[in-house]
């Protein structure tokens, strides 16, 4: 069942080109973004929507944080993202025109299910589930559904579920943009082309595994690590830190790189490796100056940089080149190296990668 792989996690990381291709099949075949993908009622429901609230837990929450950049940036829909277990226990201001999006790999996470019920009890009835398991509890309780087609995910650490959630959410943002008259036909075609090329770029990133395995040696004997990203790559830094914590038990934190000087810079020394997600986007120069702040304090940097940026390695600065910048889909691509880094650090530590201590695949208790 594992084929050439040592663990389900490794297998599932490598299945991502296929999982993305399957999830994108309908869009690529239609060569268009269409509300029908989200259910028969979707075109009507989407017309009522004036804003979005995303509710989820763990890695699925980070998918939501990433989606906010797309939903606001492309579709101009005000979007809030909240941890499901927080939302259900506070007084919020219900808005019946707000679309409640739940994101869940399993579709059975109790916190997310209860948050959805709470939203509905407040009169919020525009609901959409992004889910990987057919006919599970959360999609059954939602009006609209988009199923990701990652296939069964067995490793406790979510990998292919996350990247397929991201393409589903990007598709949603593009669909809204189109319906709201914000996407020209040319732009629609350009996005679909980018989606079509994504699985190939992901495969390229997977081929970096031998280099990333080498880097993992610098993490497996450390107690702490810091992950930095900016803009839509900040949630990917969060995801990288969660993966490392969850399976290697190394304490890891993520920060938006611009926040360094507001506190975490005090932690930086040679014993805390700093991972930087540094795509070749509008924020690259800002990220570079944040990196200098780390270097000046003796911190060791491990940089994932796009092939088309002019990064060079130097003393204390290690660089791995990811594929050339893939524009607005870049967070999906930059997820692959942080998954592999966590996996190989855990292997070196000898932890139970597929079943980390104290954790369950599907959290159906509070
Ligand atoms: O099945 P869900 O997507 O609702 O699960 C949510 C979290 O429990 C899950 O993403 C968890 O954080 C993963 N183990 C992270 O790798």
TrEMBL record:
Name listed for the protein in its UniProt record: Glutamine--fructose-6-phosphate aminotransferase [isomerizing]
Origin superkingdom: Bacteria
Residue span relative to the full protein: 246 to 611 of 611
Record: active site: 361 (for fru-6p isomerization activity)
An individual GO BP term: UDP-N-acetylglucosamine metabolic process
Cellular compartment(s): Cytoplasm
Catalyses which reaction(s): D-fructose 6-phosphate + L-glutamine = D-glucosamine 6-phosphate + L-glutamate
EC number: 2.6.1.16
Domain SIS as annotated: residue spans: 42-182, 215-356
Keyword line: Aminotransferase, Cytoplasm, Glutamine amidotransferase, Repeat, Transferase
Broad class of enzyme this protein falls into: transferase
Gene transcribed to yield this protein: glmS
Lineage of the species this protein comes from: Bacteria, Pseudomonadati, Pseudomonadota, Betaproteobacteria, Nitrosomonadales
């Amino acid at each position: 069942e594992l084929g050439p792989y040592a663990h389900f996690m490794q297998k599932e990381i490598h299945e991502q080109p296929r999982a993305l291709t399957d999830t994108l099949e309908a869009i690529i075949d239609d060569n268009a973004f269409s509300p029908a993908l989200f259910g028969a009622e979707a075109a009507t429901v989407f017309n009522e929507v004036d804003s979005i609230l995303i509710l989820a837990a763990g890695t699925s929450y980070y998918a939501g944080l990433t989606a906010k950049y797309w939903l606001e940036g492309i579709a101009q829909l005000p979007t809030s993202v909240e941890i499901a277990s927080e939302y259900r226990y506070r007084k919020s201001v219900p808005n019946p025109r707000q679309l409640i999006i739940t994101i869940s790999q399993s579709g059975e996470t109790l916190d997310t299910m209860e948050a959805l019920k709470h939203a509905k009890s407040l009169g919020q009835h525009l609901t959409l589930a992004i889910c990987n398991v057919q006919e599970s509890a959360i999609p059954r309780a939602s009006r609209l559904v988009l199923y990701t087609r990652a296939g069964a995910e067995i490793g406790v650490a979510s990998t292919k579920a996350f990247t397929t959630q991201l393409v589903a959410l990007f598709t949603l943002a593009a669909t809204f943009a189109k319906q709201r008259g914000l996407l020209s036909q040319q732009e629609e075609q350009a996005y679909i082309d980018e989606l079509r090329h994504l699985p190939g770029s992901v495969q390229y990133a997977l081929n970096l595994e031998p280099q990333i395995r080498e880097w993992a040696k610098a993490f497996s004997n450390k107690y702490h690590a810091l992950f930095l990203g900016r803009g839509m790559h900040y949630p990917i830094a969060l995801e990288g830190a969660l993966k490392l914590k969850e399976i290697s038990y190394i304490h890891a934190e993520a920060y938006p790189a611009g926040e360094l000087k507001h506190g975490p810079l005090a932690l930086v020394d040679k014993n805390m490796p700093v991972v930087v997600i540094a795509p070749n986007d509008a924020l690259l120069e800002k990220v570079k100056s944040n990196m200098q702040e780390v270097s000046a304090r003796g911190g060791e940097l491990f940089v994932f940089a796009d092939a088309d940026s002019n990064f060079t390695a130097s003393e204390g600065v290690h660089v791995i080149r990811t594929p050339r910048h893939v524009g607005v889909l870049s967070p999906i691509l930059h997820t692959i190296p942080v998954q592999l880094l966590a996996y190989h650090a855990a292997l070196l530590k000898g932890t139970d990668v597929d079943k980390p201590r104290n954790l369950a695949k599907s959290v159906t208790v509070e």
